[in-house]
Amino acid sequence: MLCLGLLCFLVVWSHESDQQQRHSHPKFLQQQNRGLDTTTNSSSLFRAAPTVSVSEIGISVEEWTRIQQTVFWDGPDQPVTALSMSTSPVHSTFSIQNLRKSYRIGDEIFVTVIARDFKSNTKRYGGDFFQAKLFSSKQKASVFGEVVDHRNGSYSVRFLLPWVGQAKVAVRLIHSSEAVQVLKRHRDTDSDRVYFRGYFKGFDVNGTKLSEVVECNVKWEHNGLERLGGGNCCCDYRDAQTGEVWRCQKPRFLTCNNLVYHSMGGYRNRLTGFERKLMGKKLTNRGIRGDSRVITVLPTNTSIGVTTKCHPGVSTPVPAGFYLKNVWTSLVCSTHHFNNTEAKQCLRDRHIYIMGDSTSRQWFDYLRTAVPTLKSVNLHSQMQAGPLMAVDLDNNIDLHWRAHGPPLRSRKSPVADLHYISNEIDGLAGGPRMVIVFNVGPHFTTYPLAFFTRRVARIRAAVLALLTRAPDTTVIIKTVNTGYKDVFGSDWYALQLDRILREIFQGVPVFILDVWQMTACHYNKENIHPAPLIIKNEMDIFLSFLCPV
Ligand SMILES: *[C@@H]1O[C@H](CO)[C@@H](O)[C@H](O)[C@H]1NC(C)=O
Ligand SMILES: *[C@@H]1O[C@H](CO)[C@@H](O)[C@H](O)[C@H]1NC(C)=O
Ligand SMILES: *[C@@H]1O[C@H](CO)[C@@H](O)[C@H](O)[C@H]1NC(C)=O
Ligand SMILES: *[C@@H]1O[C@H](CO)[C@@H](O)[C@H](O)[C@H]1NC(C)=O
Ligand SMILES: *[C@@H]1O[C@H](CO)[C@@H](O)[C@H](O)[C@H]1NC(C)=O
């Protein structure tokens, strides 16, 4: 075990230790005057730092420190006591810097966002979650711009001008800095706000059929998960390979061995009245006012695009690409738009294993449709858990999907069908014909970052072992979609998980297929399950990873 002193826990393990970056003295000296402590029970706000060691997660102290830096998020420098103190989507504005009469394709423009509270005062601190894009409705074109937080109420965005024609800027306030604090507090103290059920089946001593249903969740002695029970409360299901423990309350009559099914249990909304206001509809995901002038982009002799062949380890720039006439041009590497015949050619003689959640199941469904010779095999499994399978015998293609291990917000599914991604990868030989695809994120939004980090670190270990025994295996990671904006699954949570995933897979020769930008800048209303149009563009990148052009 590394670094087990009390101080070390506070410094290394405090989930809010990102705030140390702004202040030179240790966090624990000042935690009492931060956050929303005047409106909530402050004794429950700042729990003792979790007693989890870095070695349990399977990463080094240095790596954990780096991860904490990548998820750093600014926040209020004082207790938030009134709604009027929060950033207002109505009073905040954006402006285009030095707008010229016209631009050339490939030029950049800069936008400044000023966050203001409800009294129209410029904010002193950062932490507002804005999303920005440049778009043309007429040309069905858009591009994502990364918002940089200057931590003083001002933010800037750089945009590439990638298409000829016209463009306008749009900026949305997804959550105010104050609402982000609400999200953070619930993530760090209230992880059982999404809970699950375990279904036990068996017979009593007289041979009568019995079934019992109990509550289950991740075993983690903090963040509210300890509320499942103490002492001898529970059945702990420890996975031998990953060491992860899934925990269910003990059934009254049956034994722990009688657990058969798993399902989503429900949601517990523990937002206080004030927190509900900060997270309210009128303040969430709202476009802000700003410079609505049209940007004119003229052609040049050179067109925008990349010629780099797609290769493992390729990095994701901002922008990662752009839409024009509904078609996404990737700026990550050279991509092709595959018709059905070409898609089939590309998949020929390949064994494709997709693992994750319903958002990667969309990829399975897309491929099945795009290659009509791929026939679904009815495995009589639960659709939300899998396994699902489709085969094309003539072209020797087999396509698989299955859900990642628990936590999984699914309908009632056999527990035995829920496999951890790392275990699945450990059981595959790999090779030039094998394609391994996974995503993790949306089902982890309610848990501490350390828990997600451990899950992803274990997957990385499995991927590294795979690439050691079969270096020519294709591994593709799908990032998170934008979508939800509430305390159970906000884009802010997803973004933090996305950063952890990227940090952990830094330098590992895998393809990271960025869908964050593709979903955040599209004209469709955001949906955790994006429209077929978006999926088609994602799959063109996917196929370009397999069959580089
Ligand atoms: C505050 O939380 C503590 C510990 O969780 C609890 O004992 C106490 O009753 C709470 N106080 C209020 C006012 O809710
Ligand atoms: C905020 O910080 C940025 C970057 O350091 C700076 O350019 C800007 O002038 C600052 N704004 C205010 C209002 O202090
Ligand atoms: C089993 O049967 C016996 C005898 O009929 C009865 O007394 C007892 O209550 C039954 N046990 C259960 C758990 O139903
Ligand atoms: C673009 O091409 C035109 C003629 O084809 C030429 O006159 C002009 O100099 C070129 N511009 C650039 C920037 O290369
Ligand atoms: C698919 O594209 C190829 C060229 O890459 C073309 O030859 C073929 O006709 C196209 N097939 C269909 C069905 O459009």
UniProtKB/TrEMBL annotation:
Residues 1-19 form the signal peptide. Pfam families: Neurexophilin, NXPE4_C. Keywords: Signal. One of its GO terms (biological process) is nervous system development. The keyword Cell division does not apply. The keyword Signal applies. Residues 328-547 form the NXPE C-terminal domain. InterPro entries: Ig-like_fold, Ig_E-set, NXPE4_C, NXPH/NXPE. Belongs to the NXPE family. This is NXPE family member 3. It comes from Chanos chanos (Milkfish).
